[in-house]
Amino acid sequence: MVNRRWRETSLMAARNDDRPVWVYVIFRKNHCSGHEKMTVNMSFDGPVFWNRQVAYIYCCSCHFHEHEGPLLALLRKLEHRVERMCIVDTPVDYAFLPDSFFSYMATSMPRLQFIYLREIDLEKINRGTVAEMAKHGQIKKVIVHKCRNYEVS
């Protein structure tokens, strides 16, 4: 389920804008009212944001199958400008992020320099995707913090 504000916000992320984008995808797991909705906040102003945009995307991990399409639609609008991608899930949940999500970051975000993963279950990421990330010409740093370690298949 996606609210109207998300649609309006995604329209503001025009393809002709060339400012770098930092994306924070925050998975919240609290079963309060509205947790199944995806919320997007774009920051355009202030001293930190004069030369970049920051997208805060709040999702629920237990509804990721519903959020995946709208999330990828928004990322496709920003993909040519994304420099930082931070993905946070607290606490570590089940392996809901598919390998295709990580592969998409490695192949479709040419300016991606920094990836931060916190408390993510990495069970579904495969060796080929890790190799794609390693071959990416711009990625300088990948930080994996408190994630579940699995043997990469």
Distance between the termini: 33 Å
Kindly report the CATH topology: Rossmann fold
The helix-strand sequence is: HEEEHEHEHE
Backbone CA Rg: 15 Å
- Average of the residue pLDDT scores: 82
Count of individual beta strands = 6
**For the report, how would you describe the main beta sheet?**
6 strands, mixed
What form results from the Cα inertia axes?
globular
CATH top level assignment: Alpha Beta
User: Which architecture name does CATH use?
Assistant: 3-Layer(aba) Sandwich
Number of domains: 1
Low-confidence runs (pLDDT<50, min 5 residues)? Answer: none
Structural class: alpha/beta
In which range does the helix fraction lie? 25-40%
Arrangement of strands in the largest sheet: 2-3-1-4-5-6
Summed up, the helix count is: 4
How much of the sequence is in beta strands?
A: 25-35%
What are the defining features of this structure?
153 residues, alpha/beta, 6-stranded mixed sheet, 28% helix, 25% strand
Can you give a write-up of this model?
The model has no long low-confidence stretch (mean pLDDT 82). The protein has 153 residues and is of the alpha/beta class. Helix 3 (99-108) packs parallel to helix 4. A six-stranded mixed sheet has the order 2-3-1-4-5-6. Helix 4 links the parallel strand 5 (114-118) and strand 6. The termini are far apart. The chain has one domain: Rossmann fold. It contains four helices and six strands, in the order αβββαβαβαβ.
